[in-house]
Amino acid sequence: MAELTTIARPYAKAAFDFAVEHQAVEAWEEMLSFAALVSENESMKPLLNGSLSSDKLADLFINVCGEQVDVNGQNLIKVMAENDRLGVLPAVAQLFVEYRLEWAKEVEAAVTSATELTTEQVQQISVSLEKRLARKVKLNCSVDTSLIAGVIIKAGDLVIDGSVRGKLTRLTDKLQS
After folding, report:
1. CA distances from 60 to 7, 35, 81, 129 (A)
2. Of 70, 18, 64, nearest in space to 45 by CA
């Protein structure tokens, strides 16, 4: 994955810079997400291995994408096809989203709880994280009953494990050492 990220980074950065400059960040995110889905399609994957010339592959790819990709997106696809890089479109789309979140000063946080959180609890977690991270926070909440009680919050590199299962694991580790 690290190699894919290295290959995808210049394409994602160029696309993001272009999108910001032309005030089309959301449109570009949608285009890249759709193009990434096309590149992951089981019928399309075998064609990305170099069996077609870059021109034919780019034309085919653009025809499959249809109106979902504008002229500028088509140019990106042509450049990526010339460099035999259409297979990294999912990584380009992922990096684009990361650049957008950084640009918008937003962070997505995954909140896993033992039980369904109330609206008030979600609000408290959101406010606390926004204060701690100095960013706008978008919460993705899920339930995992194996936590016994409490929550686990993951936001980027930050992990806050306030679950009973996590506390029991830490206690076990302390007792064994």
Report:
1. 22, 12, 11, 45
2. 64
Pairing of strands 106-113, 151-155: antiparallel
Burial 122-155 (b: 16+ CB within 10 A, else e): eeebbeebeeebebebebeeeeeeebeebbbbeb
The pLDDT value recorded for residue 104 is: 80
Condensed to tens digits (0 to 9), the pLDDT of residues 11-62 reads: 899 999 999 888 888 999 999 999 999 888 888 887 877 777 888 888 888 8
pLDDT in tens, 66-113: 888 899 898 988 988 888 888 889 999 999 998 888 888 878 889 999
DSSP letters, 108-129, are EEEEEESSPPPHHHHHHHHHHH
